[in-house]
Specification:
Blueprint lengths: L42 H7 L2 H6 L3 H4 L8 E13 L6 E15 L5 E14 L2 E2 L13 E3 L4 E11 L5 E2 L17 H8 E2 L11 E8 L6 E7 L7 E5 L1 E2 L2
Antiparallel strand pairs: 1-2, 2-3, 3-6, 4-5, 5-12, 6-9, 7-8, 9-10, 10-11
């Protein structure tokens, strides 16, 4: 599991008219061990996301390319993996494998936004608390999951880089100068931009992860871990309810 980290694409300047912004406060229990979020995502981008499952796996070249000379940059896929934290924050409930894909957009105000997609993902569970067990607002009771349950997953982060951040490299490797280094969110951002900001000052403002498993004697087989602006958490991957 990567070290704990915090979780907009800006297509137009924010104005006083835009007052209905979402706050991302749902517990983040994902492949990067992000246990919280901060900041706001531009409502214009939230409209562009549309279907979260599609946005997680689509080629974002056309959707996110802005008009003018500053087109989006695309990096990956990078084969990667990580253990996956649950909402209880005390146990990792699964081991994930996936491809990381990064899309970078230079915004009109010369800031950058990174969209990281987690594609072609799969997971295998560890015995212990189910991933949604400690979220009492996700529509499911607490429970446990057996070891060896397998399934598929995908998702995305939206990460605004602070004003003053500059791009220092367009190296196609996840980690600049080391194509064989393990790929993580922090490794990519902090080797392509300066000053280093992730996780300390680069919040994930919107996130979405969808996990799905077959029967395998589960009492619940679908779990969504998402920020409030994407509907919050729902469901679970659970073998047994706790009394």
């Amino acid at each position: 599991m990567e070290e704990g980290v915090m979780r907009t694409l800006r297509f137009a300047p924010m104005t006083a008219v835009v007052l209905s912004l979402w706050f991302a406060s749902t517990v983040l229990a994902d492949p990067d061990a992000n246990h919280g979020t901060s900041g706001l995502t531009d409502p214009i981008l939230l409209v562009l996301i549309g279907n979260d499952d599609v946005f997680s796996t689509a080629d974002l070249t056309t959707l996110l390319d802005p008009p003018g000379p500053n087109g989006t940059q695309h990096y990956g896929p990078y084969s990667s993996g990580s253990t996956d934290s649950g909402t209880c924050g005390v146990n990792d409930w699964a081991d994930d494998t996936f491809d990381r894909v990064f899309t970078i957009r230079q915004n009109p105000n010369n800031t950058f936004t990174v969209v990281e997609q987690f594609k072609n993902g799969s997971f295998i569970t560890f015995a212990g608390s189910s991933p949604g067990s400690c979220d009492m607002n996700d529509g499911s009771p607490p429970g446990t999951v057996n070891s060896g349950v397998i399934g598929v997953m995908h998702g995305y982060f939206i990460i605004p880089l602070p004003p003053g951040t500059t791009q220092t490299s367009t190296d196609p490797s996840c980690v600049v100068g080391d194509p064989n280094a393990p790929c993580t969110t922090a490794a990519f951002i902090n080797s392509h931009f300066a000053p280093a900001c992730y996780p300390a000052t680069c919040p994930v403002t919107t996130f979405f992860f969808h996990y799905s498993a077959g029967d395998q004697q589960l009492v619940e087989r679908e779990w969504k871990n998402a920020s409030d602006d994407r509907g919050g958490n729902h469901g679970d991957i659970r073998s047994m309810n706790l009394p």
